[in-house]
Predict the 3D structure of the following.
Amino acid sequence: MKKLLLFFAIAVFGALVARAQYILPLKEQSRVIDELLAERLNHLLPGLMKEEGIDMWIVISREYNEDPVIKTMLPSTWISARRRTILAFYNHPNGTIEKYAIARYNVGNEIKAAWDMNQFPDQWDALVDLIKQKNPNKIGLNYSTHYAHADGLTFTEQKELMAKLSAATASKIVSAEKLAVRWLETRTEREMQLYPQLIQITHDIIREGFSEKVIMPGVTTTDDLVWWFRQKIRDLGLDTWFHPSVAVQRNDPQNFDHLRSFSNRPKDEVIRTGDLLHVDIGITYLRLNTDIQQHAYVLQPGEKSAPDYLVKAFEKGNRLQDILTSQFKTGKTGNQILADALAQAKSENIQAVIYTHPIGFHGHAAGPTIGLWDQQGGVPGSGDFPLHKNTAYSIELNAASEIPQWKKSIRIMLEQDGFWDGNQFRYISGRQIKLITIPSHASHIGD
């Protein structure tokens, strides 16, 4: 008996250790982040600069007011920029990238300091001298009408820089909007080796939260569950980029409303048997983000599966996902994809709302916006951006179904992260294809 207990203890410990290995220690995370950054700077950036026709890209930030782009270029041990940090990337005609920091320090191992303070006491003069040396035809700065991600150049920094430039040099300035978006949206091969782990971790967190381990019908509230998710993420050594949400649809007079669902939901609703639960959750790990929505059904006494009417409603949500992703094609804009998907959904009698967005360095990331919940006719600006290969998306949408048993319509709200490789779309680590049930009945227990 003692040997059996020892074996069991070892097995449990081994399982816990294996699970812990999902998430790297901070030192290892730092190493991986810096390796990913080096690969992006040296192998991804030159091609993007060439495609967008920008010879020199200048990214400027002051400490604690960081440009969204520069935050993706800092080494893992830098929590913020230092004083004023100026990065200048010159795409040499031979195809190599030259990386300069007009700053007091090297910016990690990849970007070396290039400010001789004895020769140029003024930091701007050092930058102007570098520009003269390289004589680029086009100089990209981060200002943008449609993307906050690409609009990181502040008024003060822009004013001080332009005051130092000659008229001839100033005439070379262009918006780096497209380059910034391409840098942020493009995923490398190694990043896509890691992304499935992030999503699997997120799935595991949802599965644990949507279980009898966490939920006691009649006692547990939606707010309890929200904070359980938040605490679980923190306990695993992870961060989240938004506060999780949990919502309930049930057999009551309350109708679905987007504003109520997204911002005005009751904060402390007691979870009951017969409830259709919804969670919206995302984690941040290795500078990448997830954004996932799933549903669970709380079984009523005597039930061992969700009612058929909810199963069919859920299947309609999966079908809408298929309709949307079948419209992906490199070069199509977000607005074109949205219009074509909505037209096909209508032809199949699916009442659809689509609000899909890119994901990566940010949760709501740069790239083509494919609808907003309150803009189903298209999104000016970001919706006009084309689909590029090697980009990731949160397939976020909802499909309505009339439920006669509840005397109202419900919405199946799904969100799952996927990847477009230029030829086909795939879910990075699968998607929810059936309702989670609470409790999960053990198959070996009979009536």
Summary: The chain has two domains: 26-184, 188-438. The radius of gyration is 25 Å. The CA atoms of residues 209 and 229 lie 7 Å apart.
